[in-house]
Amino acid sequence: MTLNEIELKTIDIKPIKDFYANVLELPTMQSDNKSIRIKIGTSYLKFIEDSKNPSPDYHLAFNIPENKLQEAIEWSADKFEFVKKENEVLITNFENWNANSVYFYDVDGNILEFIARHDLDNATTEQFNSNQILNISEFGIVKDRPDIYGKYLIDTYGLHLFEKNHNSETFTALGDDNGLLIIVKTNRNWYPTETPSKASTATIKLTNSGTETILKITA
Q1: pTM score, two decimals?
Q2: Backbone phi, then psi, for 146, in 5-degree steps?
Q3: What Cα–Cα distance (Å) separates residue 130 from each residue in 46, 88, 193?
Q4: C-alpha 165 chain-centroid distance
Q5: DSSP state of 109
Q6: What pLDDT shows up at residue 219?
């Protein structure tokens, strides 16, 4: 599964533009005074300003080459701070997923993640830069019953459970290493933060088994 484009809301478009264009150094494909569309490898991320209806914090993960996590940390050192544990950058080992990741925030408080998935054949010898932010690999959806909503997406759109995950009534993952929908229970803290998850609106354009689908997520 691939997450082709995700459309989110922001209360103020200006700092979002600065962060993604100038801090993460990602190319801007479209921009006006109320929106921006950013290219993230093979994916696109769009923000639309809505100052009257603030959105809760979103969660997004970006795949990077499986051998470049430490270089990604070094590249980011003068750009933003990663979530730390005992003053050291927290590198999470997802043993079942065969992946390692680090977490950070954008200017809206959205929880972002660089993840190196070692089962993907994407290692590179090039020095890490923004071109190695390969795609949006995860998007977080918040529902009261993740297992039931996951079954709805499976039955309605032909999606499938992520075989490496222990799915439950509080945490369900659909897709594969290239693209995942992470469905979490309302008020469950976004790992590894103390930020409780809240339902929010989003539009997700994805491709699953060759079929393009648009999901409209409601709060």
Answers
A1: 0.96
A2: -55, -35
A3: 17, 23, 25
A4: 17
A5: -
A6: 87
